[in-house]
Request: fold
Amino acid sequence: MKKLTPKIRTETRSAVPGECVCGNVRIEIDFPARWAWHDHSAASRHAHGAAYATYVGSWRRRFRITSGGEDITRYADPTAGTVRGFCARCGTPLFYERSRSPHMVNVSRALFKTRTGRQARYHIGIEQSPEWAYLGESLVPLKGFPGVVWERSRKKKPPMFGGTF
Reply:
């Protein structure tokens, strides 16, 4: 008879620190995050003031506010069943929670300077993307402006038969 040995867990979790723009609110999640995605929904677009927001999802028990908790202000949207947290000093969007997923916290990816263990490979609400959002068109450097790239406008082709109809 084969002797059974207990499984030894060798996984070690490390904390990934994050902070708001002013540095007053500091948070951390355990590495790795649960998942990551780009949210194109109108609610996230408005909350972040951008074409879309990128989030990492963390189990609530693996998410901690390490300082500045008293400076977090919250906005609750009872219709959507969400609560969003912002730094009251600098306005940085920090996280959002959904009543239908009480065990998860969705944290703004931009708060973290290091890897979170998940790459954002999912897109949510893509059908809500505004017509002005960048969609991956090819960009070229703008002469005389280092670090600036632009989408070159397409030249209109002349009519095939040279006349107007």
Summary: The mean pLDDT is 89. The domain at 15-129 is CATH 2.170.150.70 (Metal Binding Protein, Guanine Nucleotide Exchange Factor; Chain A). The longest strand covers residues 53-59. The CA atoms of residues 73 and 113 lie 23 Å apart.
